[in-house]
């Protein structure tokens, strides 16, 4: 059976891949993680999470062109798969349903999602 649950870090990394689109490679993802969360992250943690998400079928990757800025090395560019998009949607729907049930916030927010 395919694992379809996401840990918090996995979810953030998957979302960042979607946000960065054609610039979704490990170093850029790590930079964006730090920018968005204010927390530091090791490039190794990002690489291992990307590999795990690809193994689960949530991401696919391909090698980009070599660039002078990287000393002629190629970047591994990640893309969210249809399964990855579905899992993100399910995760969002679940969390929104919980927030809507929380008495302190119930009825106070319109999340714009169904």
3D architecture notes:
This protein has a two-stranded antiparallel ribbon. The chain has helices at residues 8-20, 26-37, 43-55, 82-101, and strands spanning 59-66, 74-80. A hairpin with a 7-residue loop joins strand 1 and strand 2. By secondary structure, it is an alpha+beta fold. Helices cover 51% and strands 13% of the residues. The model has no long low-confidence stretch (mean pLDDT 87). The protein is built from four helices and two strands; from the N terminus they run αααββα. The chain is elongated and about 55 Å long. Helix 1 crosses helix 2 (26-37), helix 1 (8-20) crosses helix 3 and helix 2 (26-37) packs across helix 3 (43-55). The chain starts with 7 loop residues before the first helix and ends in a 13-residue tail after the last helix.
Summary of the model, kept short:
The chain is built from 4 helices and 2 strands. With 114 residues, it is an alpha+beta fold. The longest helix has 20 residues, at 82-101.
Question: What is the fold's blueprint, element by element?
Answer:
Blueprint: H1 8-20, H2 26-37, H3 43-55, E1 59-66, E2 74-80, H4 82-101
Antiparallel strand pairs: 1-2
Helix pairs in contact: 1-2, 1-3, 2-3
């Amino acid at each position: 059976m395919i694992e379809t649950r996401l840990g918090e870090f996995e979810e953030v990394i998957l979302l960042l891949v979607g946000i960065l689109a054609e610039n979704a490679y490990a170093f850029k993802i790590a930079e964006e993680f730090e920018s968005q969360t204010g927390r530091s992250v090791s490039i190794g943690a990002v690489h291992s999470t990307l590999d795990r998400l690809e193994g689960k079928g949530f991401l696919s990757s391909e090698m980009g062109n070599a660039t002078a800025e990287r000393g002629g090395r190629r970047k591994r560019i990640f893309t969210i798969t249809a399964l990855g998009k579905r899992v993100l949607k399910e995760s969002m729907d679940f969390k929104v349903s919980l927030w809507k049930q929380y008495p302190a916030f119930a009825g106070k927010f319109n999340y714009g999602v169904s």
